[in-house]
Every structure is written in structure tokens, then in C-alpha cells.
């Protein structure tokens, strides 16, 4: 006897998810992960050298929830140097292991839940008053991180830096007309990373860099840094001095960040031990302190946990309308 599986395409998923709700869902997932109420296996990394491609497989389960999920996401280099992202999420019944839904989202869940994680970080770690935001990188996360930041903080100016000036200008122009961002916010292209970072209240790094881009000396007292690019052992966006000088250092998952994140480079270099980093779920649960004064330097290293994908997929499925496709398998 066949069983029915839901099919959600990108448009369905987009219609089902809004950033404020996703931030709250991802925060609950982080808390579950940090308090022993979730299963988060290691990441599978698959490189496709001939196509300059990388594939990540992540999974997760929140205790007591009806679903668990497995996500496959990929990024392949296009001819113009940009990265083309794709992916899907498969949701399974946590009681029987049978497939419940295929979310053919073309990588949207990865983009949105990564942005939401930045929103959780900013909620607990960013200064209360944010004027200038530096965005290092011009890809999808330049958009989604600002979407999420706008849900928890206002800001008046954004400086965008990219390796390609044309991409930086295009990104700044798109942000200026993007809905949901603060009205009358100014968007400018920075000629260098240093120019973007100096004087910024919040610094967001979202690149695929294999070497440090941001230096500790450029950061202002009281700044907050959200780093989202280091999702593989060879990727690095922050000088290790930033982590060692941070008054509050937070990661999404301590073990994972110690193997593939910014934390990994600082620990391997002997600058700090992994134990000095708090998990974002611990901070959100009140088990570890976040920002406690306006002059603290705070850093959050986000490598991406499978429970974020579970939270996003479950939220999308809970809001899916009756017109969603169904497949009998």
C-alpha cells in the first residue's frame, strides 16, 4: 500500500516562512541543542573538485517533536565567480522513520535559517543601539543577515565590501530597495574591508574566504561580530586575535565550531581553548551571559546546525496550505 508524501517547492516554503517567526524557531532549536534535548550528528562534507563544488549533509532531531530532517545543500562556482547554491530538505516521521515531505526549496531554507541564526546572535549580543553595520560579502547572506538584524535592531547605515566592486555596488543597490529593512537607511560600497569595519557597531562576515579578512585592530569597542562563512575546516574570515580578545565569545555548537569554524583556527593556533566559548543556546536559555555592557566586544561563530533545518522545515510544514502537492510512493 502506497503512502503519501508532501511536496513543497520553493514558492511554498517562502510563503510559509517569515523571518521573525524563523528567528524564534531557530532560537528554540539552539536552546534544545545546548540543553541535551536534541540530536545533532556531524556534518558530511563532499567536495566536487572538477566543478569547484562543495556539498554539505546535515541532520537533526528535537526531542519530543514529530519530525526529524536531513538536508543536502550545495554551492558550486559559476563562470562569473559567484556561487550557485541549491539543496533540499527531507522530513521524516520521528515515530516510524517514513518520509513525510520533500522540501524542494532550492537552498532557501539554508539561506533563511542562517540569516535567522544571525538574528538570534544579534538579539543577545549586539549593542542596544546600532548605527553602522559592515557587511563583508555580497552573496545571499548579505541580504538575509540584514533581514534578520532588522528584526531585532534598527540601523542607519550599511557599508558593503566585496572582492568584486561591481558585485558590491549591485548588492548595495539591491539592499537600498529591499523591503523590511529600516527606512532611510544609507547603503554604501566600502573600498576595503578595513574601511567597512572601522567604526561599525555590527560586523557581518559572509564569504567563502580561506584566509582572515577582518583584523582585531579595526574593531571598535562595543562592536559585535557575526561570522557565518566558516563552514569547512579550511575557511576563515576572522583573525584569531578577534576571538582571543573577545569579551564574549559565542558559537552555535562548540564541538562543531572547534572542528570547522572560526573557533577551530583559534584553538588549533593555541590562542584559546574551546571551553571559553559559550553556545548560543546556552546564552538564549540564560545559562551563560551574553552582552552585559555596551563596551564589550562580542563575537558569534555560526557554522550551521542541523537543528536549524529541522526547525525551519517543521515551521514551513505546519503552515503549508491545502494546495500543496502530494506524491504517493
End-to-end Cα distance, whole Å, is 9 Å
Strand content: 25-35%
Mean pLDDT: 95
Assign the CATH architecture of the largest domain.
3-Layer(aba) Sandwich
Instruction: Sum up the overall morphology in one term.
Output: globular
Give the tally of β-strands. 18
How many distinct helices? 11
Q: In CATH terms, what is the fold-level topology of the largest domain?
A: Rossmann fold
CATH class category of the largest domain: Alpha Beta
Low-confidence stretches: none
Judged by helices, strands and strand pairing, the structural class is alpha/beta
Total number of domains = 2
The H/E string reads: EHHEEEEEEHEHEHEHEEEEHEHHEHEHE
Describe the biggest sheet? 8 strands, mixed
Could you tell me the radius of gyration in angstroms? 19 Å
Helix fraction, binned, reads: 25-40%
Amino acid at each position: 500500500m502506497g503512502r503519501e508524501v508532501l511536496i513543497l517547492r520553493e514558492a511554498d516554503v517562502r510563503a510559509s516562512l517569515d523571518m521573525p517567526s524563523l528567528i524564534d524557531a531557530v532560537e528554540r532549536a539552539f536552546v534544545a541543542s545546548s540543553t541535551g534535548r536534541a540530536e545533532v550528528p556531524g556534518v558530511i562534507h563532499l567536495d566536487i573538485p572538477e566543478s569547484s563544488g562543495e556539498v554539505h549533509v546535515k541532520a537533526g532531531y528535537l526531542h519530543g517533536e514529530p519530525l526529524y530532517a536531513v538536508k543536502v545543500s550545495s554551492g558550486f562556482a559559476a563562470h562569473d565567480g559567484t556561487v550557485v547554491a541549491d539543496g533540499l530538505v527531507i522530513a521524516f516521521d520521528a515515530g516510524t522513520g517514513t518520509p513525510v515531505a520533500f522540501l524542494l526549496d532550492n537552498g532557501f531554507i539554508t539561506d533563511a535559517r542562517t540569516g535567522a541564526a544571525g538574528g538570534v546572535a544579534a538579539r543577545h549580543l549586539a549593542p542596544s543601539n546600532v548605527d553602522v553595520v559592515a557587511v563583508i560579502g555580497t552573496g545571499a547572506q548579505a541580504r538575509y543577515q540584514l533581514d534578520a538584524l532588522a528584526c531585532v535592531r534598527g540601523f542607519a547605515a550599511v557599508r558593503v565590501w566585496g572582492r568584486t566592486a561591481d558585485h558590491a555596488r549591485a548588492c548595495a543597490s539591491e539592499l537600498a530597495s529591499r523591503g523590511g529593512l529600516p527606512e532611510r537607511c544609507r547603503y554604501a560600497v566600502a573600498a576595503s574591508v578595513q574601511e567597512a569595519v572601522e567604526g561599525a557597531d555590527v560586523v557581518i562576515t559572509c564569504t567563502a574566504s580561506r584566509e582572515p579578512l577582518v583584523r582585531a585592530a579595526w574593531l571598535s569597542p562595543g562592536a559585535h561580530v557575526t561570522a557565518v562563512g566558516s563552514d569547512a575546516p579550511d575557511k576563515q574570515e576572522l583573525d584569531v586575535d578577534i576571538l582571543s580578545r573577545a569579551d564574549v565569545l559565542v558559537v552555535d555548537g562548540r564541538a562543531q565550531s572547534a572542528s570547522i569554524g572560526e573557533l577551530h583556527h583559534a584553538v588549533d593556533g593555541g590562542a584559546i581553548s574551546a571551553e571559553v566559548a559559550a553556545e548560543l543556546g546556552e546564552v538564549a536559555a540564560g545559562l551563560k551571559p551574553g552582552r552585559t555592557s555596551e563596551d564589550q566586544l562580542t563575537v558569534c561563530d555560526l557554522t550551521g546546525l542541523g537543528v536549524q533545518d529541522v526547525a525551519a522545515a517543521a515551521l514551513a510544514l505546519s503552515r503549508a496550505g491545502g494546495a500543496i502537492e502530494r506524491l504517493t510512493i
